[in-house]
Amino acid sequence: MVAKKALLGAAVVLLLWAFCSAAAAGGEKRFASRFRPLVTKESRTRVVETESGTITAVDVRDGCAGAYHLQFITLEPSSLFLPVLLHSDMVFYVHTGRGRVSYLQEDYKHGTQSIDVKHGDVYRLEQGSVFYVESNPSPTREKLRIHAVFNAMNIENTAEPFFGAYSNICDLVRGFDEQVLEMGFGVSKEVIQGIISAERPPSIVPYSQNETEKPSWKEGIIEALLGVRGPRDLPNKKKTKTFNFFSGKPDVENCYGWSTAVTNKGLKALKGSNLGAFMVNLTTGAMMGPHWNPKATEIAIVIHGHGMVQVVCPSNPSGQSNKSCECKNTAFRVKEGDVFIVPRFHPMTQISFNNDSFVFVGFSTNVGQNHPQFLAGKRSALQVINKEILAMSFNAPNSTLVEELLASQRESIILSCTSCAEDLAKRTESEEAREREEEEARKRKEEEARKREEEEARKREEEEARRREEEEARKREEEEARRREEEAARRREEEEEAKRREEEEAKRREEEEARRREEEEAARRREEEEEEARGREEGQSEREREGEEEPRRRRREEEEGGGGEAPWEEGGEGEVVRRSKVAAKKLYKG
Ligand SMILES: *[C@@H]1O[C@H](CO)[C@@H](O)[C@H](O)[C@H]1NC(C)=O
Ligand SMILES: *[C@@H]1O[C@H](CO)[C@@H](O)[C@H](O)[C@H]1NC(C)=O
Ligand SMILES: *[C@@H]1O[C@H](CO)[C@@H](O)[C@H](O)[C@H]1NC(C)=O
Ligand SMILES: *[C@@H]1O[C@H](CO)[C@@H](O)[C@H](O)[C@H]1NC(C)=O
Ligand SMILES: *[C@@H]1O[C@H](CO)[C@@H](O)[C@H](O)[C@H]1NC(C)=O
Description:
- This protein has helices at about 1-20, 170-175, 180-185, 190-195, 215-225, 385-395, 400-405, 420-545, 550-560, 575-590; strands at about 40, 45-50, 55-60, 65-75, 80-85, 90-95, 100-105, 115-120, 120-125, 130-135, 145-150, 165-170, 205, 245, 250-255, 255-260, 275-280, 285-290, 300-305, 305-310, 330-335, 340, 350, 360-365, 375, 415.
- By secondary structure, the chain is of the alpha+beta class.
- The protein folds into 3 domains: about 30-245, Jelly Rolls (Sandwich), CATH 2.60.120; about 250-315 and about 325-420, Jelly Rolls, CATH 2.60.120.10; about 440-515.
- It has a 7-stranded antiparallel beta sheet, with no helix packed on it.
- Strand 2 (about 45-50) and strand 3 (about 55-60) form a beta hairpin.
- Helix 3 packs across helix 4 (about 190-195).
- About 30% of the residues are buried.
- One 2-acetamido-2-deoxy-beta-D-glucopyranose binds near residues 64, 65, 322 and 324.
- One 2-acetamido-2-deoxy-beta-D-glucopyranose binds near residues 281, 283 and 357.
């Protein structure tokens, strides 16, 4: 066991020395979720592009479950596709050129095995194989073109991630720690350094098998002598294990074309694989009669000409459509390099145009148990159904109609169909145009609806803004009014305050005035009193002066009848004043 492992390790290291591959493992991107029966050449992704060759790829789905990865590998003459570790089974068809495919299978006891391949060959490599491809030198510069399908089933059904179709050996080794490699391979640091420091090469590099190959004269002679096609097919060399579409008789052949399929019965290499291969060549104005595959899904690549393909959806009795594997009846035009996929149960037909043949090569799943079922022609599955029952299933009044339906077609499988492709193409195109128009109309409508909605939203927004503004204005106004009112109240208060203050002031002034007047009065009175007092003093002295006068005056007064009382004997200011005035009058009169 350990020894075997070491052996494999050594083999790998040897391979590494020779060709440290950098094949960018294709198919890492996820698969499109919606089923598309047609994948055009233009929609392939470019995986590798070097001077020595290119690899393009497409991912396809069969309805809703399975998924497949296709690669189109093109090698210039004398080139090498560097070794890769295959992640899934690979079935390939050699479209043009010649070359050699070398592989190392899990039971590497046979060492590296090789098969020489040429135009028309089919072969299968098992999952887990390491393989590489060399292209022969070619005087006509014919490229080696390989169409390969990788069974990528379970991609979405398992938790296992999809690592792409294959990975290059170089990366597998170089991913390890250096010391692990040193110990693991039992080699020096320098050797590992040499491995690790080398630049990652492109997937396809120039390569010349100079010494080993002696193409030469032998080829022609042996062919001529033995009637075989070339030295590579000679049994003394590595025995041919491929299947070739162009050797031997087709499975079905008539003047409208031929078709051949290969399963594990025809090709030992397909043993244990669920993939098979087929090729159909429709001559001008011919059709592959309507048929369906009960078990297989077909993935076909157009290798020559144009054609029309029509696929019918198996009806769903519940009437519910499953979005994840949506299906609708469809017809489409295909051209060289396009890929089309027809899931099982889907009746289909392929039709060639009047001016050219239409050739496609394909891969089908579950080939072991699949038997295509034809609707029309001598071999129609409908032929074996009781006509009465058939009539009922078509809701025909009696069996005459269905008998007629099945009686006329004398051919089987590949049928004549002059101008069918042209008419179907025209109808499809006008249908497509109509659909496009409808789609556009729908889009326009949606656009309009969207615009309308936007407009409405805009209006609503404007309205809202206006309302908000109004609200704000109203609030502002209210605020203003409130402010004004407050101001007025404040002013009123102030005025009142001012008035009160004024009144107080006035009162104060009045009181002041009154006080002042009182004081003045008091002062005046005091003055008068003083005056009076002074006057009295003066009067005394006067009386003293007029001592003799007094008795005379008193007499006169007595005569006049006046009171004899003294004027100052009475109290009160008024009296005083009056008396003083009277006195003064008397004084002046006197
Ligand atoms: C191929 O062989 C020829 C002569 O045998 C030699 O001149 C040439 O260099 C070789 N080419 C390579 C790439 O080895
Ligand atoms: C397909 O058939 C036509 C007519 O028989 C023939 O000319 C043509 O070469 C065939 N094409 C292929 C790829 O076999
Ligand atoms: C749709 O198909 C998928 C895949 O077969 C399946 O898992 C799913 O349940 C289906 N959905 C419905 C609504 O039938
Ligand atoms: C054959 O006819 C179809 C449709 O009429 C046309 O599209 C196509 O280009 C023609 N092919 C050749 C090789 O003339
Ligand atoms: C079958 O039905 C068609 C149309 O209704 C009628 O013309 C024909 O005579 C019927 N044939 C038989 C055998 O009943």
